[in-house]
Design brief:
210 residues, eight-stranded mixed sheet, 5 helices, Rossmann fold, 12 strands, alpha/beta
Length: 210
Amino acid sequence: MKKTFLITAGPTREYIDPVRYLSNASSGLMGYLLAGEAGKRGHKVILVSGPVSLAAPKGVKLLKAVSARDMFTLVKSNISKADVIIAAAAVSDFRPERMLRRKFKKDSGELKLKLVKNPDIAGYAGCVKGGRALVGFCLESENLLERAAKKLKAKNMDLVVANYPSSIAARKTRAWLIDKKGKITDSKTASKEILAKRIIDESLAILSAS
């Protein structure tokens, strides 16, 4: 039976002024590969993407977001359609409290930013998911598996994909898949295409078992 996947991908941009913004180095590749893999299997895919330089996979419904709040709005309005939610986007945790209307001039002196928290998209999905399968990602420089397991529990995920910052924009990566029972599967170093297939397999298995 064909399912509907709601997948987030890419970075977000939190604007300081009309030119400058806070963001991260995410390329969006993992999320786009996941969308493509699910689509190739005949599933319906809604891809909510931050700003990236990638073409949407064929047959995928692409919804474009810029900021974390944009992405949150799109996720909220589409989550009821989904059977599987994969939160693969690298969402900015913070944003400037206010955006300057004009470009800040360097001769204006120091620029001090007050940052406020952005919506927790994966956390929201975990609260409202019901019988849906929720897959998230955890990227850490240290204590990776411990922090990933805590994130899975805190956000009510069914599966978390843990990896290191070296995976950003890389074609190959090593990841660890942790499920709700505490089982840890080491993907070994492999292409992101292979990892995408494994994640789609696991997400469908979770859905079947629920």
